[in-house]
Description:
The complex is a heterodimer of chains A (729) and B (198).
Chain A: H1 2-21, E1 33-34, E2 38-44, E3 55-63, E4 68-75, E5 82-86, E6 92-93, E7 102-106, E8 109-115, E9 117-125, E10 133-146, E11 150-163, H2 175-183, E12 193-199, E13 202-208, E14 220-223, E15 236-240, E16 243-249, E17 260-266, E18 278-284, H3 308-322, H4 329-342, H5 347-377, H6 391-409, H7 427-445, H8 450-461, H9 465-488, H10 490-495, H11 501-529, H12 531-553, H13 560-577, H14 588-591, E19 601-602, H15 605-613, E20 618-623, H16 628-638, H17 641-649, E21 653-658, H18 664-672, E22 680-684, E23 692-694, H19 700-707
Parallel strand pairs in A: 19-21, 20-21
Antiparallel strand pairs in A: 1-2, 2-3, 3-9, 4-8, 5-10, 6-9, 7-8, 10-11, 12-13, 13-16, 14-17, 15-16, 17-18, 20-22, 22-23
Helix pairs in contact in A: 3-8, 3-9, 4-7, 4-11, 5-7, 5-9, 6-11, 6-12, 8-9, 11-12, 12-13, 17-19
Chain B: H1 2-12, E1 31-33, E2 39-41, E3 49-54, H2 60-67, H3 70-77, E4 82-88, H4 100-110, E5 116-119, H5 124-129, E6 133-134, E7 137-140, E8 146-150, H6 162-165, H7 169-178, E9 193-194
Parallel strand pairs in B: 3-4, 4-5
Antiparallel strand pairs in B: 1-2, 3-7, 6-9, 7-8
Amino acid sequence: MCKALTHNIGVHFTLALLAALWGGLPALAAPVVKTEHVEAELVTEKASAQPGKPATVGLKLRMAEHWHTYWKNPGDSGLPTKIDWVLPEGWKAGDIQWPYPRPLPIGPLMNYGYEDEVVLLSELTPPANAKPGSHAVKAKAEWLVCKDVCIPEKGELDLTLQVAAAEPVANPRYQAHIERARNMLPVAPTGWKFDSAVQAGKLVVRLVPPPGSKAPDQVAFFPEREQLIEPAAPQKVSREGDGVRIEMKLADPPPAALQVVKGVAVSDDGWPSIAKKAIEVDAPVNASMAAAPAAATRPAAGDIAGSTATALLFALVGGILLNLMPCVFPVLGIKVLGFVEHAHGEARALRTQGWAFFAGTLLSFLALAGLMLALRAGGTQLGWGFQLQSPVVVSMLAALFFVLALNLSGVFEWGAFAQSMTANLSARGRYADAFLSGVVASVAATPCTAPFMGAAVGFTLTQSAGLAMAVFAVLGIGMALPVLLLSHFPALMKKLPRPGRWMETFKQVLAFPLFATVAWLAWVLGAQAGNDAVLALLAGLILVAMAAWMFGKWEHAAAPWRAAVAVILAATGLAVAWPGPAAAPSTAGIASAAPGELAWEEWSPEKVASYTRQGHAVFVDFTAAWCVTCQVNKRIALHNEAVVREFGSRGVVALRADWTRQDPRITATLAALGRNAVPVYALYLPGEAAPRLLPEVLTPSIVLAGLADVKPATDHLSGLAPSPERTPR
Amino acid sequence: MKAPIALAVAALFAAAALANAPAGKPAPAFTVSDLDGKPVHLADYKGKTVVLEWTNFGCPFVQKHYRSGNMQALQKKYANDVVWLAVNSTNKASADWTDAKALTAQLDDFGAKPARYLVDEPGTVGMAYGARTTPHMFIVDPKGTVVYNGAIDDKRSTSVDDVKSSKNYVVAALDELKAGKSVSTATTTPYGCSVKYR
C-alpha cells in the first residue's frame, strides 16, 4: 500500500517535472472520479485545441463487471447518461455523439446500453479569440449504472485544455480509447435508401444498398425514439433483393403521426465499403411499401393467414364460388346446357370440350394477371379489377353482355357467324366455342372477384411474380373445375334434366342477369365518365340491338347483305358507345349525401392524418362503382339508420376513397394495408398508427361492433378538439 | 373474458414475453396476495378508480418519490376517491428482494399509505400489465378500463429536487377523472429501474 503510494507520487512528480521542463505542455491526465461501480474520466483526442476549431473530448466510463450504463434511448427502463459542461466564456459544447449500443436483456425486458467501457465523445470549441494557454473545463456528468439493481451516480470531472495556434498533435495516451469510440459511431452511408412502414402491428424498416453492393444478412435495429417498438420482442430480419428488411413489434399504443423512423442499424459483419459496424438510419414512412412475403398477417377478421398454401386454397375455393356470381352464371349455364345436349354423345369429345373450356379460363386468368403484373412492374399503380377502371372497357363489356343477352333472349342465333353453343356443330367448332366461353367467363368474372379474393389477391400482388401467377392460375383452375368435372363424369350429367323444350326457356331466363349486368355497367360508366357517356352507350346499344335483330330476322334469307349490314350497324353502335377521351369524371353520384345518410367527404391521406390528429376516429370506405360488393355493403350496412346515428354520436368522420377510376394514391394506400382490391373498410383511431380493417362483407352489426372502441370525440366535427398529448418528450 | 385468458397464458409462460395493458383497453384481472397474505382481486374494486403503482424501495427512482414525500402525499390526497394499490413484482433472487416484515417497516418509515401492498413475486401481474419500470403507473377507471399507462411525472431523474418542478401525470389524470373528463394524456413513457422479474 505504502509502496504503491510512493510509486504514484513518483509518477506524478516525474510528469510535473516534464511539464515544467516543456513549458506549455498540456495536462494529459485529468483526475479520475471513482464511484462504487464506475471509473469516470475525461479524455482528449489531441494534445491541444486551436482557437475557433472544435476539439474532441470524451467522457470515459469504465463500468464494474456486468454493470451497464445507457444509450440515448435506454429501452424499457434506465436513463441515458447526461453531461453538463461548465466552460470558459465563449466556448461551445456539442451534443454527445453516442456509440452504437448493445442489447442488454434483463428478464422479459430489454435495455440498450454499454458494458465494460464506453467513451461518450463531444466537441468543445474554443472561441476564435481564445488566448493560448491553459483553460479549465468541467463536466458535470450523471449516469445511471445498473446490474440487478440501479445506482444513480454522478461526478464532476475537470480537465485542463491547452489552446495553441499550432496544428494539434495526437494525444497518445487516449488514442486507443478515442479510436474505439469513433469506430462505434454510426456513419451516414451514401447511396443507401431507407424507408419504413407500419404494417399490422409491426414496424418495418427497409435498408437498400446502392447498386452493386449487398446489405449484410444479420442486422439489429436500435430506434432513437422511445415507445416506438417493444424493445424485448425479437426482430425479424429477412432479405429483400440486395437489401434487408427488419420487422419489429410496434409498441402499443403505437406513436401517433409517425413520419420518419430514425435509429442505428448494427451488423457484426459490417457494411459494404463502410469500415464500421453501425450506420445511421433515417427512414421516412412509406405508405406504399409492400407487405413482407411471409408476414402478410392482417388485423381484419376472417383474413387469410398469409401463407402461400392458404392463399392458394383461398384462390381455389374463390374460383369455384365465382361460378355462382351473377356475372358468370349465365355464361356457365349456357356451357352446361351445351353439355346436356351432348351428354349422350361421345364421352371423349365431351372431355376434350371440358379441357378446352379449362384452357380458355386458365389462359385468360394468366393473361389478365400477366398484363397487370407487367403494367405494375412498369410503374403503373394498378389493382385487381383495373380493367374496369377504364370507361372504354366498361362500355365494351356492356356491349358484349348486351349481345350475349340478346342471343339468349332468342333475338338471333349465332348460326355460321360464330359457332352456336347449342346448335349442331362440328367437333372442332365446339372446342373453339368451349375455349371462348372460358375466356368470356373469365373476363366477366373479374368484377365479381373482390368479395372472395380481396385478401388473397392483395397478398398475391406483394409476392414474387411467379407466386402471383400461381395464385391467379389456381383461381382460374377453381373456376373451371366444376365444368371440367362435369365433362369427365357423364354420370353426373345424367342427373341433369334431359334436354328438351325447357332448355329454350331456361336460356331465355338466363338473359336477364346479363341485362342486369349491362344496366350496372351503364351506371358504372355514368360514375366514371358522366351522363353523356351513358347516353352514348345506350344509343350504341340500340344500334347493336338493331344489328342483332336484323341478323336474326333474316336468318334464313341467305341474303349476302344480311351479315354485312349487321356488321356495319354493330360497328357503328360500338363507335357511338365508345366513350370519348375527354369524358369528364363525375363522382357526384357517389359522393353525394342525402338526408339521413352519412356526410361522406372525399378521401385523402392528409385528411385522415389531420382528423385523427384532432382526436376524431376516421372511417374510410375504399370503394368503386364497379364493385358489386361495395354497393351491397353501402345499402345494407353504411346507410343503416343505427350506423349513421353511431357515426354522428361518436364523431366519426366518414371518408370515401373512390377507386372507380385509376388513382395511384388509393392504390398505394391499399397496398400499405396489404390489399389490392375493393372493398376495404378501414377505421383509423386517434393514437393508433395502423387502422383496423373491417371484413369485406359488412352488416350493420359488424360496423357497430367496429365503432364500439371509438371514444366519442369531445368536440365532434368542429375540428377544434384538442389533440391528445402523447408520450411527451 | 379476454383478460383472464391473457393472464392464464401469462402465468403459463411466466418467462415469456411481456403482455400489455394500453390505455383504452380493459384492465387485466388479477388475484394476488397482499403483505398480510390476504388475496386481492381487481374485480373487488369494480365501480372504483384504481391506481396501480409498481414499486421497489431498492430502486433510486422509487426512492426519489418516497424521500420527497411525493408518493405518500398522493396516496393520502386521493385516499377517498381511489383505491391505491402498490405492486411489487421483485423476484426472490433479486438483490432488491425484501421480505414482508422489512417491507412493513419501510412502509412505516416512509409513512406510505397505499390501500393494499401487493406482493407479486412471480411477476404475473406485472407481466400481464407490461409493467416495465419502478415506478410505472396505471389508472383503471370504475368501468375497468385502463385510462392511464406511463410515468409518474415528466422529469426523468433520480433527483429529489426535480419532484417540485415536474408535471405529475397521475395527478393530472386523477383530477380530470374526478371532474368527469376523459384523461387527456393517457400514455407516457414510464421511467425508472427495470422491474426485477424472475
